[in-house]
Amino acid sequence: MKTTKISEQELLTQQEYTGKVASLFADRRPLAHIRTYGCQQNEADSERIAGMAEAMGYTVTEDEKEADLIVVNTCAVREHAELKALSITGQFKHLKARKPSLLIGICGCMVSQEHRKNDIKMRYPYVDFLFGTSMLYRFPEIVYRALTEKSRAFYSDDSEGNIAEGLPVRRESRFKAWVSIMYGCNNFCTYCVVPYVRGRERSREKDDILREVRELAASGCREITLLGQNVNSYAPEGTPGYGFADLLTDICAIEGDFLVRFMTSHPKDASHRLIDVIAANPKIARQFHLPLQSGSNRVLQAMNRRYTAEHYIELVEYMREKIPDIAITSDIIVGFPTETEEDFSETLNVLRTVRYDNIYSFIFSPRNATPAAKMENQIDDAVKSERFARLLEVQNEISRAQNERYLGRNVRVLVEGRSKTNAGLLTGRSSQNRLVHFAGEDALIGTFTDVFITGADTHTMTGTLKQGEEQ
Ligand code: SAH
Ligand code: SF4
What is the model's pTM? Predict the structure, then answer.
């Protein structure tokens, strides 16, 4: 399949719409509020939406009550995420009643599903526009039409997806950045809605990515996270044979003191070569997110994951041998249809064998249009919840023990800001992506700093600035 790159001409058309919106507000700066649900890809998309909104003359606000434009960027991976987005949209209704000129739009994965689109058309009449993930670049046109045509508009995705380069961006952080390297997914894991809502897999050209990383590094960015549903199948059409390991090597050659993270890797595609590249490059964070989903080969097959627990463990062993200080994290689904107690205990066994630093665990949520939703032997909610609790219990003990290994050691962290949970303390992340709380000055925010670890919990560590670091 040929990737559709959005043409220069089309991007210019959108710039014209940007100017037209700005001219509608010649007398004042309108306010835009953007609410984001879901994964890092959605956060990255919202930064583009915010960038385009600013280019149109909007100022981004945290306060939805004063906004002239509200955009809800939604997630569809689990039902819970959809219900949250619908509930918040419902709460915006009274804002529109108070200020009829308010525009409300919904975008993202949830509205790329036909049934949700229809649902919103019928039951949320105060929503002015919807657009799916592949329509992101047309945001200026969508806003202009909503402001001038006064009729509701629902934009459908193009079926294969596309790539739009050079959209404006308003990054949330001045020292951390997301860089999407590819979009969509071809894997069709049987539980997952992503291939249906984000289209087919397509990779950005390497030169576009390297240019963006170079600019970020030059502007003092300290952490760059490369995003893709399966970064290991990165394959730009313009450079046949060039893969993710090559891209990482080229990124590490860019000058600057920055750390590179990436997510997500699919165990069927993560290669020894990739692991060797990480081992050889200190700029790459010592963290590998490798979703297992289940430890049972029978369930893995039913999920269409195309690897076995044995293959997975072999990869982990190779990683630990080559990069001893690597932190390994994972996604686990409990209660996939047909999962027996024995299947579940095999998942627990892999947890105990691998000893993850952390896991993200999910209760299986049937998704419209996916094969797993129609499978027989769906698991009872009570059984799912009980297994979920047991999974956490096993993992929490392992996470705590993994954190305790750092007690009495110095750890280099990127200082992110003030902690929300531990008022007054700074919070940072180690190369292993572990959270560290410690006392220090605001001036340290956005810098790499060494912290001496004095306490370790399940999810966080505490420490003190290494002697000689404090001014
Ligand atoms: N592309 C990434 C994951 C995207 S979705 C990958 O393959 O790793 C993020 C996580 O949500 C998945 O890893 C999976 O654990 C979880 N997930 C996806 N669909 C789900 C569903 N229907 N029910 C519960 N969890 C789900
Ligand atoms: Fe979903 Fe599987 Fe693709 Fe990940 S690899 S986005 S879990 S289909």
Answer: 0.96
